[in-house]
Structure formats: C-alpha cells, structure tokens
Amino acid sequence: MTPSVEREHRRSGGGRGGGARGRRNIALLILAIETSCDETAAAVVEDGHLVLSNVIASQHDLHAEYAGVVPELASRAHSERVLPVVRKAISEAGINLHRVDAIAVGNRPGLIGSLLVGVAAAKALAWSLAKPLIGVDHVHAHLYSGLLGAGPGGRHEANFPALGLVVSGGHTALYHVDSPIDVRRLGSTIDDAVGEAFDKAATILGLPYPGGPNLDRLTQTPGADDRAFDFPVSRIAPDSLDFSFSGLKTSLLYAVRGVPQRGGHFLKDHTWLSESSRADLAASFQRAAVGAVILKLQRAVQGGRYRSILAGGGVTANSLLRRRLDEVAKQHSLALFLPPLDLCVDNAAMIAGVAYHLLSAGRVSDLSLQAMPTTSC
Ligand code: KG4
Ligand code: ZN
Questions:
Q1: Could you tell me which of 146, 295, 309, 356 has the fewest CB atoms within 10 Å of its CB?
Q2: Conformation bin of residue 63: beta by default, left when phi > 0, alpha when psi is -120 to 50
Q3: Cα of 225 from ligand 2 centre, angstroms
Q4: What is the chain's Cα-based Rg?
Q5: What is the pLDDT of residues 273-319, one digit of tens each?
Q6: Does one domain contain both 43 and 117?
C-alpha cells in the first residue's frame, strides 16, 4: 500500500456513499477507536468492508489475577495504550493520518471510564484533523463484524432483512436487521449474558481467566461427554425470544459444589473434580448454553422472513456455537455472516464498518458526543 496516496476505488458503479461525500471513485477510509471494556483497539477500514489494519491490545494479563475486569485498571491502561495503538493502526494501513476521511469511536455501551478514553481520543483527532466524528454503538457493531472482509464479489453483502444475534460478555440479544444501520431488538437476556455465564462457569470449574475460551478448549478433551450432565435449557415462554442463563449457572454450581448448607456454605469446592469429570461438566454446560442460544434463534427464524443471519460478539468464537449456527443457516437456506476469530472479540474494525454506513447516511456526531454505559439498540 502506498502511503498517503489516494487509491482508485475500482468497484463498479461508484459505490454507496459516493454522492454523500461528493468524491466518487475514491476510497473512503475510516479510522475507528474502541475502548469499551478491556481491549484497546484501533482500525482503518476502507469503504466499510476492507480492513486495512486491525490492532488490538488486550489487557487479559492485567486482569487475570482478579478473574475479571477491574474498571480502574482498564481505563488507566487504555489511557497509556490508545495513542500507540492508533499510531500502529495508521502505520499498518500504510497511510498518513491526514488521509483518513472520518474518525469513529465506540461510545456506548461499556465501562464509563474506559469509554471516556476512546471518546476523548476520537474527539481530539477529529477536531485537530477537521474530520467528521461518528459515535457507534458497540453492540450494534458486533452485528456488522461478519460483513467485514472481502467476499467473492469484493465485499460481503448481506441480504436483508437479516436476523441478528449478538452473544458477548455483556449482551445476548436477537435483532431484526433491515440494513447495516437499521436494527430493532427482538429479545435479550433477562439476567446474565451468555459470555458472562461461560466466564462464571469457568470460575466454578477452577479454570483460569479468560474463562470462555478456556472452557471451550476443555470441552475438546478427547472423551469429554456432553451428555454426562443434563443441565437446563431456559425456554421462558413458548413464544419468548428472551434468554436466561442464571438457572444453568446455578445448576453447574450445585453439580460441582453440592447444594448449599444452611447459611449458604458449600461443603466442597472444585478441587475434588477429576480431569475427566471437569471436561464432562464443561462439555455438558456448553451444550446447554449453546442449545439455549440456538433454541431462540430457531424460534426467531421461524417467526420471520429472513434472508440471512448476522452473528457477532465474543461467544461467536465458540467452536460448538459456530457449528450449530452453520447447521441452522443450512437448514433454513440462509446466508450466514459469522466473523473470523479475530473479529469475534472486541475490535475497532466493526466500529469503522458501521460508521461508514452512518456517514453515508449523514448521521455524524459532533464534539458533544457522550460516553454512555448502556446500549441504544
Ligand atoms: O464481545 P466480547 O469480546 O466483549 C464484550 O463485548 O463483552 O466478548 C467477550 C466474551 C467473554 O465473556 C468471553 O469469555 C467470551 O466472549 N468468549 C467465549 C469464547 N471466546 C470468547 N465464550 C465461549 N467460547 C469461546 N471460545
Ligand atoms: Zn463486545
């Protein structure tokens, strides 16, 4: 890639957004920043789909000894890392900072101290470069991550309406998606998010942080029996598209530690588990957790006329969920947009992707943009 050279945009037809920006045939580059939780990320994305760079500085080591994200540590680490990460994203994209057309930032939902770092950095860049600023909802952006990258026609084009599924550490929800920026929630978790349930299950089993990927790995132990324990799959009501994972988590807790005694004490901890019973428990938990997600997805597919499935969020890295999503899509002849593993977890490329469509629609923010703890979708 040639630094600071505006590359020809060779897609036929001029492309979406050409009129809005009044610069047909020139690629539109968005620099995005993401700091909502424990990853400091920056990316440069061309025309909403081609990822020129995707830099993620994970803080897992920092939070491991606390078995969870410590907000104060997270925001301090973001402050230290955000500019080096942005510099790396610009350099890996092979461009000059002045070449970017807009600055995007995940401004909600998340840890407020963490979000503030990204929002302040994005505002400073947008103001000093005199470029548009675009605030993007992080949960919404997870839905877009499977649309990044180049498909056979040079880009991934979802057929709408699509059924959206976000399964992350903080959110679990289904969406009716009419376009990349037109999203309506159909149902969501009434207690824990599925990623949170995976993380808590991993702690119950004595697995190190981050729990979800470690639990997934344990289920792949040769001989692990996913039917050894019959954990509950929540249905809530016959037509509900909401999720619940707290009963499943409690069932696992009791299976490992026994029923609590008077005063809430347990008679045992996880140290009595053999390696094979730990693997059986992990596999049985995973079957139930993934089963609960797939159950509601199937309900939603049957209740609407969808043409594709857009799935995103950290738990889409789960090996069993990926297989089951593929099966559902094939069974209903739906196109499945599932992110590659590096785009399942928090990243800034997905923020840039949504920002491209917001910019094309004229939906830009200004310097009054706020960091918000809750999602807008
Ligand atoms: O999307 P994400 O990076 O952050 C949030 O927006 O929350 O998701 C992180 C969540 C964590 O709960 C993590 O344990 C879970 O995704 N996760 C997994 C796997 N990889 C990440 N859960 C199950 N299996 C995995 N392979
Ligand atoms: Zn996320």
A1: 295
A2: alpha
A3: 30
A4: 21
A5: 999 999 999 999 999 999 999 999 999 999 889 999 999 999 999 99
A6: yes
Q: Are residues 179 and 325 in the same domain?
A: yes
Within 10 angstroms of residue 61's Cβ, the number of other Cβ atoms is 8
Cα 99 to Cα 23: distance, rounded to the nearest angstrom: 14
CATH of the domain at 71: 3.30.420.40
Q: What is the DSSP letter of 304?
A: S
Nearest atom, ligand 1, residue 346 CA: 3
For 254, the domain range is: 160-338
Chain center to CA of 205: 25
Looking at all shown ligands, the one closest to residue 313's CA atom is: 1
Interatomic CA distance for residues 209 and 100, integer angstroms: 37
- Work out whether the CA dihedral 96, 26, 54, 68 comes out positive or negative: positive
> Per the structure block, which two tokens stand in for 297?
């997805």
Which segment of 36-40, 115-119, 359-363 scores lowest on mean pLDDT?
Answer: 36-40
The two three-digit tokens of residue 199, written as one number: 């993380």
Q: Whose CA is nearest to atom 14 of ligand 1?
A: 212
Tell me which residues have their CB within 5 A of the ion that is ligand 2: 168, 346
The answer to whether the beta carbons of residues 173 and 187 sit under 8 Å apart is yes
According to the model, what pLDDT value does residue 264 have? 86
3-state SS assignment for residue 98: helix
d(CA 233, CA 344): 24
* Residue 124 and residue 266 share a domain: no
Alpha-carbon distance of 274 to 287, in angstroms, equals 20
User: How many of the other CB atoms lie within 10 Å of CB of 105?
Assistant: 34
Taking the C-alpha atoms of residue 146 and residue 141, their distance in angstroms, rounded to an integer, is 10
> Distance between CA atoms of 234 and 243, rounded to whole angstroms?
7
- Burial of 79 from C-beta contacts in 10 A (0-12 / 13-18 / 19+): middle
> Residue 23 above 60 pLDDT?
no
Prediction pTM value:
0.91
